[in-house]
Write a structure and sequence with these properties.
The chain is of the alpha/beta class. Helix content is 35%, strand content 16%. The chain is globular, with a radius of gyration of 37 Å.
Length: 997
């Protein structure tokens, strides 16, 4: 038997049906089991244990009994006839009828469902059994579950003065009874002895193909929910969803299967809900989970209770992380070499880029109301072409990613630099900072207008004076939403700006800010706002944490609304009522100025920040979607740090005074554009056909990729991860020495900047992901190291996708693994991706596109001999691009792929440490001219001879002079044997130079 537990050494619980005999199934255990007696005669028909005790236990009873026989499985049709006959013989007493009608069923519905009272003990019970035996025979009746006790006697559940109950029949979609239970009034359900639960299920509500089917526990729960809510339901006994049940569900061809187990504070129920969802999803069904404010917060427990209350559940998806994501994902051989992006020559792409830009800018009057995207490789001359074309157009408005880049363009091409408010150009910067931090409109509240100034220094303001200058202006991308910057312009050029940062307006509220805001909202006018903010404050505090107590994942989208609704219920409120009670005309008080219309810092801090108003606006806006009970996209999320509210910024298309963004032509320059942002920027314009072209990577650029690790944030937080990268960098320096420090550079995470600088890089030659876009600081390097690969938090990407696609189908956060090949190599690796194409596009932009952008900071495409036809020689003839990550870059040609198969774990770390010691000891012995033998190495390295033998790949007693380093770097292609030997020396040097683990 497969034992799952004992009770006082007298019984054991077993899951195997083949040994059950006539034993009943105990559904109170998890998983459901059969209870066997360890000693004496057992209900399964076998005597267990010692003979003396067995003999004592097996003494004949004074009651008449028949020797039990092993139960044989009756066909479903036979069981149905027996159960139907039994129900026809039983009455329906008032007690049972009252219990069922109290749950919402009518008298007729109770009769139609086949509910019947248990037979009373003694005469009624004996007559009931006698009539069944007369009809079907004793042997057949014994084989039907529910008609024998643990001693094999013919019997049935009975009612007596202190206990009454009724029979619950489980029926298939065709009405045939698959099994029965007894409901004890005021107590639990009992399953018929000998029942195989995998055959028992109940279908109610006439499910039709393509429609929703609710899956729950208990036939009565399903019957009540279907009768009151008009739904189709599928019920099993307890929580025992089996493969046979799933096959029965699939045969009904439902549109969606909705798992609707009880909402209670019960770990077993939570586990069952997850188990059901996984099993149904794995079977290829479209699954949802029913969610409502349940018993754990004072609400209805079961689906039937919820529907009887007059409500319906919310239907939500559950997303699981594939188990393979947590496993090592090493490169593996593939049948074909990965594709390489061919592209065109630099001259061809530059000519196309220049011709397209000149045509659009020179004829800007003809292009009013139109937009053009030019997407060509970094270094193809887009920015230079704009500057040359603007000689005849002196009123352009150029927007770039950062103020630093705007300053570079201003100095290089003579554009007028427009800066944001700062200490140098604003005399009331303290008020401006207070308004900005609170999220208020700075221009409206702090500056005012020329006719109605809000600042005493308005007429002499240096900041405002910038906008009186004529000519082409350049500024950071945020100026796109400043009408003063755009006014007077005849064309807008968006040059490789960080649109994901610029186009999204972000607000954050902490618990402390919410608490202070509640205190600031005094009076009856703000009563609804105070109560709502208090619920939000409690929701942040009650956000689920990890078992370690650390901050858990952010709650966003529909789960956030479910969390808010549950929190409100817990504290005696109704979320819908709170939101609907908010005033519609004025949500919050505004900062009040003095009689002269001038604001002070104290006036700004006296009222809640604008983020509170943005939160209430978002809640009012999304309430109808929440009441629809279906999944939707939300622009709110929270975690233990606070709550975030985001939205797309409104373009200045309806500015008082006449400026219309839709009238001005827009030129978009971006090597790696994100379609959703491009579509948003040009939604008021007539979009011309995109100009797209790429430059093929020159042959004198050598791409080397060390694919031993992804080198993500988690890996590089460990010392051994940094040391491995250091060894790879030293290896490259040894093989191909750099002439000057200025000719070698690195791009890495911000957190790794100091560690990379300590490896011998000049601070000016170390850039970080996210800030290198558009920079020419590395235009002359001969070797560029890219350490790691960008990977923003998945929650951030999903949240951003919900904000960008708010009115579309609900965004899925399901993760998947997709194979990705290395360009030009017969190797591939699995990379993490999102199943939803909208989130996948954002991930690709933040990861693959960002890598493409940073590797072109070395201006690789300019290494073409034809580029020097003007006679000016290029100082660089070769560039070596070194990627320290196993993440494949789609389309990038890889000339040398270096693989490693080791996995860093505790035992692996110890093994590597031993290898390091042995390698160092071998080199010392070699330098002293001593023989490199197993014994000498073991003594010098402090290692066991067997360990030395494993490192050398040699029997323990065999002395051998070997090259210890050949196997440290596996180079599947390109390098010859001499290169491998050289690599070995380089790895040894790295181990000698960098600290030990």
């Amino acid at each position: 038997m497969r034992c799952t537990g004992f009770t006082l050494e007298r019984a054991t619980f077993c899951t195997r049906e083949e040994y059950t005999g006539s034993l009943p199934l105990v559904i109170s255990t998890n998983p459901p089991t059969y209870k066997h007696s360890l000693f004496g005669r057992c209900g399964c028909g076998v005597q267990h244990g010692w003979s003396t005790i067995s003999d004592f236990s097996a003494r004949p009873s004074t009651a008449s009994q028949t020797t039990p026989q092993p139960a044989l499985k009756l066909p479903l049709d036979t069981r149905h006839v027996i159960y139907s006959t039994a129900l026809d013989l039983l009455p329906l007493r008032t007690e049972a009828l009252q219990d069922l009608t109290a749950r919402g069923l009518s008298h007729e519905a109770v009769i139609a469902a086949g509910y019947r009272s248990l037979p009373r003990r003694a005469g009624e019970h004996r007559e009931f059994i006698r009539r069944l035996v007369d009809r079907f025979g004793e042997q057949t009746l014994r084989q039907c579950p529910g008609f024998t006790d643990k001693n094999g006697r013919l019997t049935f559940w009975t009612a007596f003065p202190d206990r009454d109950g009724y029979v619950v029949a489980y029926r298939r979609e065709d009405g045939k009874i698959t099994g029965i239970q007894a409901k004890v009034l005021g107590a639990k359900y009992l399953t018929a002895r000998g029942t195989s639960l995998k055959e028992v299920y109940h279908v109610v509500g006439s499910p039709k193909p393509g429609e929703d089917l609710y899956a729950t526990e208990g036939a009565t729960k399903a019957i009540v929910a279907s009768y009151l809510g008009g739904i189709a339901a599928f019920a099993v006994a307890g929580q025992s969803l089996a493969e046979e049940h799933i096959d029965a569900i699939k045969s009904l061809h439902p549109g969606r299967v909705i798992v609707a187990l009880d909402q209670e504070e019960n770990l077993n129920t939570d586990r069952a809900r997850e188990r059901w969802y996984r099993a149904l999803s794995d079977a290829g069904l479209d699954v949802r989970v029913a969610v409502w404010e349940g018993q754990d917060v004072g609400g209805p427990k079961g689906l039937d209770d919820l529907i009887q209350e007059g409500s319906k559940p919310c239907l939500r998806r559950i997303y699981f992380v594939p188990a393979e994501i947590g496993q090592p994902r090493r490169p593996r051989a593939s049948r074909e070499a990965g594709p390489v992006e061919q592209g065109q020559s630099l001259e061809q792409v530059r000519a196309l880029t220049r011709r397209s830009i000149e045509d659009f800018l020179v004829h800007h009057r003809r292009n009013r109301g139109k937009a053009l995207l030019i997407s060509t490789s970094p270094g193809s001359g887009k920015t230079r072409a704009v500057a040359d074309a603007l000689q005849n157009s002196s009123a352009a408005r150029i927007l770039v990613g950062t103020r630093r880049l705007a300053t570079e363009l201003s100095e290089q091409f003579g554009y007028t630099l427009i800066s944001g408010r700062n200490q140098d150009n604003c005399q009331r910067i303290d008020v401006v900072d207070a308004l900005s931090e609170a999220g208020h409109d700075v221009g409206k509240l702090a500056c005012g207008t020329a006719s109605k100034p809000r600042c005493p220094f308005r007429s002499s303001c240096t900041y405002c004076g910038q906008f009186r200058s004529a000519g082409t202006r350049v500024g950071a991308a945020e100026q796109l939403f400043n009408p003063k910057f755009l006014e007077g312009g005849n064309i807008v050029v968006v040059d490789d700006a960080d649109l994901s940062r610029t186009l999204v307006e972000r607000h954050h509220l902490s618990v402390e800010v919410l608490e202070r805001s509640v205190e600031q909202l005094r009076g009856r006018r703000w009563l609804a706002a105070r109560r709502l903010l208090s619920v939000v404050q409690h929701a942040i505090v009650d956000t689920p944490r990890q078992q370690s107590g650390r901050r858990g994942p952010a709650v966003m989208g529909p789960p956030l609304w479910d969390h808010l609704a549950k929190t409100a219920r817990r504290y005696g409120e109704e979320l819908q009522a709170l939101i609907e009670a908010l005033p519609r005309n004025r949500l919050l008080p505004q900062p009040q100025s003095n009689q002269a219309g001038v604001l002070a810092v104290e006036d700004v801090k006296a009222v809640p920040p604008a983020a509170v108003m943005r939160l209430m606006e978002a809640l009012m806006e999304e309430l109808p979607a929440f009441l629809s009970r279906e999944d939707f996209n939300s622009r709110i999320r929270l975690d233990t740090r606070g709550i975030d509210i985001c939205k797309l910024r409104e373009l200045p298309n309806d500015t008082p005074g006449g400026f219309q963004f839709a009238d001005i032509p827009v030129l978009l320059l971006d090597a790696t554009p994100i379609d959703v942002f491009m579509n948003y920027l040009t939604r008021f314009h007539d979009r011309l056909p995109d100009v797209r072209a790429s430059v093929r990577l020159p042959d004198n650029v050598t791409v080397v990729q060390y694919a031993s690790s992804s080198n993500g944030h988690a890996v590089l937080r460990e010392q051994w991860g940094v040391e491995r990268v250091a060894a790879e960098i030293v290896a490259e320096r040894r093989r191909f020495p750099a002439l000057h420090p200025e000719q070698e550079a690195a791009i890495c995470f911000v957190s790794q900047r100091d560690a990379i600088e300590k490896m011998g890089f000049k601070p000016s030659q170390v850039l970080t992901f996210g800030s290198a876009r558009g920079s020419n600081a590395l235009a002359e390097v001969k070797r560029l190291h890219v350490v790691g690969r960008p990977m923003p938090p998945g929650d951030d990407l999903v949240f951003l996708a919900q904000v960008l696609h708010r009115d579309e189908e609900a965004v899925s956060r399901q993760l998947v693994l997709r194979p990705q090949a290395y360009g030009g190599q017969r190797w591939e690796a699995d990379v993490v991706d999102f199943a939803d194409r909208r989130v996948s596009a954002l991930l690709r932009a933040a990861r693959e596109d960002e890598i493409v952008q940073v590797i072109h900071r070395a201006r690789l495409v300019t290494l073409v001999p034809q580029a020097s036809l003007d006679g000016v020689g290029n100082s660089r003839r070769q560039v070596r691009l070194v990627l320290h990550t196993s993440h494949p870059v789609p389309g990038l040609r890889v000339d040398e792929l270096k693989l490693a198969s080791h996995r860093i774990e505790v035992n692996e770390e110890r093994r590597l440490e031993a290898e390091d010691r042995i390698i160092v000891a071998a080199e010392r012995l070699r330098q002293r001219g001593e023989p490199v033998t197993i014994t000498a190495l073991a003594r010098a390295a402090g290692a066991h001879k067997a360990t030395v033998g494993k490192v050398l790949g040699t029997p323990v007693h065999t002395p051998k002079n070997i090259n210890l380093y050949n196997r440290m770097n596996h180079v599947p292609q390109i390098l010859n044997h001499a290169d491998k030997a050289e690599d070995s020396e380089v790895v040894f040097e790295a181990l000698m130079v960098w600290p030990k683990r």
